[in-house]
Amino acid sequence: MKGILTGVGIFFWAALSFAQQPHWKNFQAPVMASLRGVSPISDQICWASGSRGTWLRTEDGGKSWHTGTVLGLDTVDFRSIHAFDSQTAVLASAGQPAVIYRTVDGGNSWQKVHQEGKEAFFDAIQFVDEQRGYVLGDPIGGKWMVLETIDGGISWRSLSSLPDAVDGEAAFAASSSSLVVDGEGLVFATGGSISRLHRYSFSSQSWAVRGLPEIIQGAASQGVFALSLIAKAGSLVLVGGDYLLPEVSEGNSLMILSKGESKIPTRGPFGYRSGVAYLQEPGWLIAVGPDGSDFTKDGGNHWVPFSSVGYHAVKVTASGNDIWASGSNGRLAKLVY
Fold this sequence. Notes:
Elements: H1 2-20, E1 23-28, E2 35-40, E3 46-50, E4 54-58, E5 66-69, E6 80-83, E7 89-92, E8 99-103, E9 111-115, E10 122-127, E11 133-140, E12 143-149, E13 157-158, E14 169-170, E15 179-181, E16 185-189, E17 191-192, E18 196-201, E19 206-211, E20 222-230, E21 235-242, E22 253-256, E23 262-263, E24 275-279, E25 284-289, E26 292-296, E27 304-307, E28 313-316, E29 323-326, E30 331-336
Antiparallel strand pairs: 1-30, 2-3, 3-4, 4-5, 6-7, 7-8, 8-9, 10-11, 11-12, 12-13, 14-17, 15-16, 16-18, 18-19, 20-21, 21-22, 22-23, 24-25, 25-26, 26-27, 28-29, 29-30
């Protein structure tokens, strides 16, 4: 009898969770590029970018897409994008070459505003406001690369203070989500030989670092791939895993609470996850990966799968109320909840 009642309870919980869970409204863009960059403005306006020098933009909620290739750079992978509105956006390539481009006319023309050397590899882009933004790059000469703009992406320069990197430590550009910023500073998470959290304070202009022993690490395919800030709670949620073992869930998520304590989720995302974003209302987190999506209602402690469709990246609008995702073969989606 106990087994029967337990089974009924599980069935009821699963049915209730299904009834309350979100779902994706999927779109197929007129390109087959791998889209790891996504930057939504609203439920109607969203930009995306990716392989083959591709950029995309919709102004009608995904019904139609304007797309093109940046100045013939069809071998460049633009994994990072930040859009300000329907006309202005900044793109950063992963590397070969590591370049930053900017448009002010909806993508009709692009201006190269920055380029790094052959060893450079850009991982993520984030803006504090319409003027100040940051690009994170992999270490060169034992120092992490962090570029700053204070004029809306027109010009870029290195931070005067850069954190040290451990040999084999790297950030991941799978979704341009390994970096977050706010008015107090910036935070980025790493993987590879070691998984760590690096924090930079704007006021003191200094760095602090902490290890993340709860996260799977030690191999080039392992570590934290994305993090999200929950401003109201003052906490961070980190997701990742091992992209070569996408079905493995152990060590793929962690919460850093407001006072700095670490907490391992009671039930983490169901596999490797490359992107995560916080939906302000109703206070959910959405995580995506190549084999599906999960959500949590309690700040990252209990995750529930809601889709088996794979996506690389997930981002939220500045209002915190609309979430879009991008994936392989020109796949895009908007969350319905």
